[in-house]
Amino acid sequence: FVVAFLLATPELGVETFALSVRFLGWPLAMARLAAALLVAFVAALLVARTSTRDAAPTADPSPMPDAPTLPFATRFREQLDALAGHVLPWTLVGLVAAAYVDTALPEEGFALHGLRGYAATSLIAIPAYVCAASATPLAAVLVAKGLAPGAALVGLLLGPATNLATLGWLRAAYGGRAVVATLAGLVLVTWGAGAVIDGIGLMPPAPPVAETHAHGVLGWLLVGAVGLLALKGIAAAGLRGWLGSLGEGLGGVPATS
Distance (Å, rounded) from C-alpha 96 to C-alpha 33? Predict the structure, then answer.
């Protein structure tokens, strides 16, 4: 259960799914969601079957003190601030990276299909920490530049689920054999999911050309609300503190965004 939760949480966030729908379209967003559930399920089974260690606690944990009951509005505001502080910096990085790749790479400048595409995205995604939300716009741009949608899905699944920090934690908790078996199983499952996506020809929707800069009132209101959340977080923690989630993801602890 712990392993399934660790691997599935980054892919099942509301913000990740919303960005997937916006940049990849409903069919690919639903495929990403289903594949993330399958990845978590397979990883949990493999760890359970191959682990050489008992990760259960040896003593009964101390009872947790009762948390004070806060009004719903207070809890909602605190949780929204925490979510914005963790997601917005990574989303900003993803949008800047996507904009740079879009302008720097020519059309078909990243044309990778089939096993070559799956292998290339796996080699990049497995060791590095990839935020599921921020990688979504970058994946959409790479697909527009020639990357196969299945290969993009492989990167979107493996990146948040496997990184050096997570693999190190798995090895310490469950042993090296469990890590090898889980990693091999995840690669096979994600490559299979990518092959299915490419086989049925799922593609992100073509970006609109004529209405690229045409935004309604609701769009501007939402942009303003997100901007206010970002400014509130920066004012409370400072710019360096607000960007601290980037360091947490790149550091030595498994991240869940």
Answer: 25
